[in-house]
């Protein structure tokens, strides 16, 4: 659902922006449906990533899960809206070049971090172009791209793209449609990035308090798993020691029986 909703939100916003740039506007009834679909995609991505966070670390509070859902929705909204506006101003090739360059940046970060194999990283880098899928509670070394590096790249890209957006809008003669599609996407991108900046520090702090390894289940951290291992080891040792004592007892009884058999009965 996440891998489907994230690209759909970007493509649908891109379609709205292209219609606005062409000066024809969206077909009758299409714009409201696309906006509703985009909003549903944002909610789907936020809830999906929050549920994965809860599945990985179920000891977190409900407030943390809600905060993750809101933060992730802001993240995909800011990313999709900014890309859509930038791609609309650089149509028809800017959209594809932006995604290709970002994919290359993600590959470089994956190779530098060396948390996953390169062949696997080729596939992991695809969704990272739009949103970071991995739970925030994972340790830094367990991420394909560490969250601090990922969000730093996103901030730099946001600043660079908005610099060119403002510059190209001043120089371009594109007439904004009466429905305010361009302005709506720009406001969505700016306010979503602001929401991401506000919610990320709180989510990050709580995630570090509940940090766990990617390869270890959370229930094992309280020692219950170790207890199971210790119990099994204790049982095995008990069985082994009791078996050895039984064997020694049998040998002693056989030896005693043999000695008694060798003695002659009294006449």
UniProtKB/TrEMBL annotation:
InterPro entries: XK-rel. It is found in: Membrane. Keywords: Membrane, Transmembrane, Transmembrane helix. Residues 245-267 have a biased composition (Basic and acidic residues). Residues 235-244 have a biased composition (Low complexity). The chain crosses the membrane at residues 9-27, 118-138, 150-168, 180-204. Residues 225-267 are annotated as: Disordered. It is a multi-pass membrane protein. It holds the Pfam family XK-related. One of its GO terms (cellular component) is plasma membrane. Belongs to the XK family. This is Uncharacterized protein. It comes from Polarella glacialis (Dinoflagellate). The lineage of its organism: Eukaryota, Sar, Alveolata, Dinophyceae, Suessiales.
